[in-house]
Request: fold
Amino acid sequence: GILDLVRSRGLGDVYKRQLACVISSAINRKLRWSVLTEASSSTLKVTAMVMWIMAAANAFSSIYTGLGATELIRSTITNINIDPILIIILMMIVVFLLGMILDPNGITLICLPIFLPIVSVLGFDLLWFGILFVMNMEMAFITPPFGWNLFYLKGIAPPSISIKDIYAATIPFVGLQIISLVIILFIPQIALWLPEIMNI
Reply:
């Protein structure tokens, strides 16, 4: 469709989508200066919020590592008597809860500097943990109240569908992803067999 018209212009995917939206609005005679102003203002607010979260998370990661907290946690983990899989489960719960209030970039910058040394000390496969982490981030995109995809859906949904309806509709999908996460958590070979075949 319209994306095909701008595909040959040498623009990135994001700019293609933006240009396609502008062209679509113009074709439908809904392109107004007030609409552009409102969209730009909303985009600027969301972008600024995300950038502040990322900046703060990056600063936290640097300070956390610089103060030697990584070594402290590593030594603490090796000295406590607890089932290692329970620690991984706790990490997944923390990431899931953070996904409700933070964007995935901020969660990644905050959690990975803390979690990866622990996972390494416990002897788990880092690739397996990375797959679990990414699956959790996917849930963050559809988990209320901050899930990005929920607001995308609200933007294209008919006016009769409220944000509460969209929140309720995500419950089965979140449930299925949690089941998948638990399966891979306790049966790592499901996630690792292909990388092992490819010698990754």
Confidence is low (pLDDT under 50) at residues 1-12.
